[in-house]
Amino acid sequence: MTTSAEPAARDSAGFGARLAATQARFGPACVGIDPHRSLVESWGLDYSYSGVERFALTCVEAFGGRVASVKPQSAFFEVFGARGVALLERVTAELRAAGTLVILDVKRGDIGTTMTAYGEAFLGKDAPEPADAITVSPYLGYESLRPALDLARDTGRGVFVLALTSNPEGAGVQHAVTPGGTVAGDIVAAATRDNADAAARGEWGHIGFVMGATIGSALDDLGLGGALAASNAPILAPGFGAQGGTVESMRSVFGESISRVIPTTSRDVLKAGPSVNGLVAAVERTRESVAGLR
Question: Domain Orotidine 5'-phosphate decarboxylase: where (predicted)?
Answer without folding.
Answer: 28-276
